[in-house]
Amino acid sequence: MSSTPFPSGTILGYPRIGRRRELKKAVESYWAGRSSLDDLETAAAELRAVTRTRLAGLGLGRDDSAIPETFSFYDQVLDAAVAVGAIPARFERLREADGSIGLPAYFTIARGEGDDAPLEMTKWFDSNYHYLVPEIGPDTVFTLSSDRIVREFEEAKAAGFLTRPSIVGPVTFLLLSKAADDAGAAFSPIERLDDLLPVYVELLERLALAGAEWVQLDEPGLVNESITVPRDQQLAALERAYAVLGAVAGRPQLFVAAPYGSLDDALPVLAASTVDAIGLDLVRGSLPTGLDDAAVSALATKTLVAGVVDGHNVWRGDLAGAFAAAEGVRALSPNVSVSTSTSLQHVPHDVADESLLDARLVSWLAFADQKVEQVVALARGIRDGGSAIEAELAAATAALADRADAPGVRDGAVRARLADLDDSAFSRGSYAERLAAQDAALDLPPLPTTTIGSFPQTGEIRRARAQLLKGDIDEAAYLELMRDEIRRVVDLQEEIGLDVIVHGEPERNDMVQYFAENLDGFEVTQNGWVQSYGSRCTRPSILWGDVSRPAPITVDWSVFTQSLTEKPVKGMLTGPVTILAWSFVRDDQPLGETARQVALALRDEIADLESAGIGVIQVDEPALRELLPLKNADHADYLDWSVGSFRLATAGVEAKTQIHTHLCYSEFGVVIDAIQNLDADVTSIEAARSRMEVVDDLQSSGFDHGIGPGVYDIHSPRVPSVDEVRSLLEKAVAAIPERQVWVNPDCGLKTRGYDETVASLRNILEATRAVRAQLADA
Q: Is residue 660 annotated as a catalytic residue, yes or no?
């Protein structure tokens, strides 16, 4: 085993998409057949090289393992699954002759092909990043099937960098996996740990031969109390895993990182192991207390990596407080390093790229590059004493004070309105009365059909938006182009036969940014891209002050759409929890207080839609499960304010106005009561990629409102067949009363192309008619 000290400052990961989304463009070009596999590999290698050089330039060491290798073509969990050969049987045909899994196969597993569905997708802890869920069964064969992690380390070494290879740790890998469909009800993937560990051993041996001094094993599964594997099994698996890995002869030193919360009772287990460094998230978590003498003694022999720079948000923050927290770790070990709390994949590259943001706001912000600089400064303070970084600490403290006093951060009128609310603002009355009024007003058939809201954003739409921003066309010309697109989308829905019509949202760049641009208290970025999943990137808005709505936002678009059809038109809004989840939100007050401000702004918009004659209004909350705290003790408070903010936004309408909501890509069973408590008349929910798993939770919970379990996985380019959709619908109506069931895709259609969208919607309608006929004959 090597004995090189852990670097005094590091990060857990860095954005991998490129400052101008170079990876997204290269991957999508390859998918479209416009470039070769060699072209893609070259572009990725260039991006990795730029990243290493940039991090070294910001102050991380070139030769001390301070720079982590966290690049991914699509997803870090998929990377681990492919590395250990844990791919579903339906994709075994994609292996190379030598048993390896190449990049074309990797993308097919992520995106699906023909009748072979991709891996399920869900949220990565409490972030807006999505990971692909490995499928593990009793017969899954684990074997080293990709040495990409070794090759990328060797690539860095050849360029003069001694970096730190990184991979999802074995315990978290199995905790985040799902049982394969044929595994049996009693099987849990964690049972396969002893079969998986030899592959990790082989990987460590290969990395040691390549010259790696340190390897980072990410084990955030250990901080998440929502994982269903009993805790004693988790801790036993942790002890077993690191006993085996720690015993590898000549291995690199092991750094186990556990971001997103406190390790709690897992920390003594790691302390007793032979791992060499342990990462502590001191932003979402805290220093451990109540440790026994054995754990205290063991920790004193480890390097403790203090995650004191927030990797999850963009605020410059309290640098003096971060320094004090890092210094506090010395009470546990004399060997202290400084890091970010999480990977920086959750934040944009560089605030210096934002030339249009107000300079005062910029002074309050820190994107990835600025957070690296903070880590470097704090590491210097830990090495040389606080006096060495007095200037940096003072500047950050001054920025905090300036932010607190800035106009707009607190708005007296907004706060007075919130103070005047009473219980009646959060309640709509009985669902039974509403259901009767809506049935009479809307007169919809059984299994009513609709979409989630957005239709494909074509090149023409994006060009028109760009032309408007550049001044090449005026507002009137742009509006007419958008109206033309809405006419086309409405005609298409009428021709296909959908029952509730949407306008397709051509005018919206993003479901959160669009509202942020029209609400006070927000700013939007030019280049603040972060990865959501695969090649999909978003630009989270920055919520910096008190929120209010200066004018109606969506009403004119909905009224225009309703003028084109006799069918009900659904007004489309993004809910308060999702607006918070998919923005960088102020950290100077409780989230619940900010959510209520957003809810009041949406309440005003809903009132104006209803007054304009829009009888169906959808308030999307796909992030409701996403923000659920990882610690059980925090659930009640979160569910109280999150559900309350949705009800505050929607409770002002009449009984006949039908309120919809939408949730996607999460494990819904743990929040099924909260979904009921939202009291939406209809909830559409992801179900296609998970093959209707959610209907069992809905049935057992007694959920009695309208429900639209998705029948079309829009995160894959596959077109579901009529038989596939019909099978999903039949499973839904077998578990849920027919009167409750709606038919819809899993999510919005913005990222899909028109050919696949139209084909899929036609198949959905054909399958729906067939199931309606079955129900009528029953």
A: no
